[in-house]
Amino acid sequence: MHRTVKSFLQTLKFSVGCCRYYFNHNYDMVIALCSQIKPQEFQFTKCLGNSWNNTDSPGHIVPRRFFSCKDLLKSEQENWKVTSARYMDTAERIKKKLEVMYNKYTLSMSSPVIRFGDCVYFEENGCIFRSKADGDEGSVEVLLSTEDLGFHDAIIQRIRISPDQKYMATSIKSSNSEESSCIVTKFENLPMVEYIIPNVFSFEWATNDVLFYTSQKNLVCHKVLLATFANRKHAELVYAEQDPRFFVDIYCTKDRRFLTINSNSKTSSEVWLVDCSNPFNSPILVQQRTKGVIYHVEHRNDELYILTTYGEPAEYKLMKTPVGSYGMENWQLVYTLKEKTKLIDLEMFRDHCVMFLKHYGHLYLNVISLVSHSVQSIKLPAWACAFESEPHPEYNASTCYFQLTSPVQPPKRFAYTLVENHLVEQEAPITINCHTLRLEAKSKDEILVPITVFYNTNSKELHRKPLLVHVYGAYGIDLNMSFKAENLMLIEDGWILAYCHVRGGGELGLSWHKDGCMHNKLKGLHDLKACIMLLHELGFSQPKYTALTGSSAGGVLAGALCNADPDLIRAVVLQAPFLDVLNTMLDTDLPLTIEEQEEWGNPLADEKYMEYIKSYCPYHNIKPQAYPSVLITAYENDQRIPLIGLLRYVHKLRKAERDHARSMNKKGNLIPNIILNVQAGGSHCAPLWEDSLNEKINFFWKVAAVLPFAHKGPLWH
């Protein structure tokens, strides 16, 4: 739905202490530029009052003194300088090879194009351009430049064009912050910036000159406002959410009949309708929020089409009801997803609804005729692991365009003709020496857990090859299976890549997430252990050549595995990881703690959740034993993962390692590297993580720092 179903599905989990790493406004024009913004001074806020006695060895933290957070940060930065200096030659070699891959595959990808009326809009290098759909290159005009506006090295997140194409609203943010500004540009003889609205998350045009937008503060959105840009410019409050568990965004239906105000928690929704022809009228409630019922609204021919979890089975369904008969007692079933199916996205056209689905690792298109209610199911090529639909497809279009991709395949364009029911491959996939294998591991409770494996078809003795295992397992969000140029480089170097689709994620639908959150979180840990053990049993590497990587909430399962089964892996590489679940969920002063209670439980109100979280929390279960090497990357401006928690984690882990070494009192034991890299600037959801070439280079040589065996491959020489 205008690329918004994906946004809607992810907004339900949006305010995770960790999940916005994956939240990507796919329906918008997103470009991540390598940041050159000067580091801001880090504000230590709550952590200045924290100190503790430390006995770490020289080179880490100086012994026999009390240290503040600032002291610890300074010590870690000095330690990082020493460690990183050892691998500068390796980093330079990796950089040269990765730049070749990056230039060959990533830079050749075209920017998303938005068609609006007889014009197309696109973004390149921080500028937004417009041209006639049928025009030549000479008809291209520049509408906005972030550099000219003083937004240096900024990220363009979203654009919205007014119905008469006289105004454009654009959200721009720094990679050092999660807060965006909305730039309203008026198209006269020359484009002119009319207004800048700070701290905006989502926005839509209701009419030619009335813009609705949500105001974001401390990572949450609770208010909807409207602004007018005609004769009398003003702004007024339209809606205010009172429940801190809910997050508010707005959306415009494909036919532009209604603007919807969507208030979502992790487990329930409430939608209000604004008539675009009368935007100053009070919004109308569709269905009062009901626990366990999530829903999203589209419109066609005086009927609301509702994507919802209402009714049995507890998977997504497409329902409809006449305009005016809004309550769910009037909703009529159109289509139900089958069990263990993940709804990735949905597009509404005039007479068709196109569902993008994943079922046990395979991708499908389900095309529903809204006239006859017949359903066409198309299985997509087996190599595909992820797909993106065209941004802002035209409501009356007869063809649905989308791209297929995988961790080792650049995006390739496909078209599906809605009337002829015909799939056209517009670009052939590249030929690579890589085999894709889908496996299932039997978890502790006999549930089968999917694994997707990639390895070089020319590789011999796979049990001696390095293995990189990916995990996430939270908020119903899938592992990111889109293309990354560095994955091809690893495959060429003989690495095996494994993606473990554990419970808590969304790969097998809503029930897969439910079975891995709250009081079921340990199931995700059991799944991860079963996946790694199966890979080793089948001859894919072995523990001493295995590395585990995770970001954000993926740090919970990765850190828990380090405590429970450290012998399964040799190294762990984490980015902005969530490692102290218990202390975070006990601190309601943090902006997202209350919202997160529906994912992790509420230890303040329920002693059972207190004990359960304590049983798996990575920080609270560190103990003297042999750990794998650990490399953690943190970001100074991360509002979701407090730096003090990562400093405490690293301090405690080093002490446990040291205590274990002393108790063993054996010479020749391998001493793992425990490294914390605190990067100046950056924020938790900064696109730099995935799109910055520098970050990719850093990742590889960090792997070298914690994986001695990595130097055996040609990549490292």
UniProtKB/TrEMBL annotation:
GO cellular component, as recorded = cytoskeleton; cytosol; Golgi apparatus
A single BP term in Gene Ontology: proteolysis
Q: Where are the transmembrane segments?
A: none
Keywords for the protein's UniProt record, in alphabetical order: Cytoplasm, Hydrolase, Protease, Serine protease
Picking any one GO molecular function of the record gives: serine-type endopeptidase activity
| Peptidase S9A N-terminal domain location | 86-420
Q: Its biological function?
A: Serine peptidase whose precise substrate specificity remains unclear. Does not cleave peptides after a arginine or lysine residue. Regulates trans-Golgi network morphology and sorting by regulating the membrane binding of the AP-1 complex. May play a role in the regulation of synaptic vesicle exocytosis.
Q: What is this protein called?
A: Prolyl endopeptidase
